[in-house]
Specification:
179 residues, alpha/beta, Rossmann fold, 9 strands
């Protein structure tokens, strides 16, 4: 099995993406390395043993990858939290700020039985905006946020502090303290 250090070494840096000055952490290299996706999810599952959850909410788009594998492996419902205009039907939405702008997330209303304990999953924690927006949607829909899980935490952007202020506990496999 790949160690977390070995998984970390698979992540490549892409300078000036999506805008100049941003050093993008590209996890697609985990996906192209045979077995690395499954092993990354196994590490995430172990890191999330501290949370009691009965559903998973995955944030678009790379969160879908890790969240869907985790949900399938644990036989849990998966809720998709998407960018605007991607979901049909009755939705709720929440605007948030990110490292290089702002955006909105949407979720189907009543996706889960009220009172579900939901684990939020995404590939990366940066400013915490999308995770807090996802938590707001989950709570507004009558559910509890059990915690959040990320492959990477960009500590230097302060997302962990923002999650703490929003009362969201989280686990991350890889912490990066500086650009």
């Amino acid at each position: 099995m790949l160690s977390i250090t070995e998984i970390s070494e698979l992540i490549r840096n892409v300078p000036d993406f999506p805008i100049p000055g941003v050093n993008f952490k590209d996890i697609t290299t985990i996906l192209t390395h045979p077995g690395a996706l499954n092993e990354t999810v196994k590490h995430l599952e172990k890191a999330c043993e501290v949370f009691e959850y009965d559903a998973i909410a995955a944030i678009e788009s790379r969160g879908f990858i890790f969240g869907s594998v985790l949900a399938a492996g644990k036989n849990l419902p998966l809720v998709l939290i998407r960018k605007p205009g991607k979901l049909p039907g009755d939705m709720i939405s929440e605007e948030y700020s990110l490292e290089y702008g702002s955006n909105t997330l949407e979720m189907h209303r009543n996706s889960l039985p009220a009172g579900s304990r939901v684990l939020i999953v995404d590939d990366l924690l940066a400013t915490g905006g999308s995770a807090v927006a996802a938590a707001t949607l989950i709570r507004r829909d009558g559910n509890t946020v059990a915690g959040a899980a990320f492959v990477i935490d960009l500590e230097f952007l302060g997302g962990g502090k923002i999650l703490g202020e929003a009362e969201i506990s989280f686990a991350a496999l890889i912490s990066i303290s500086s650009e």
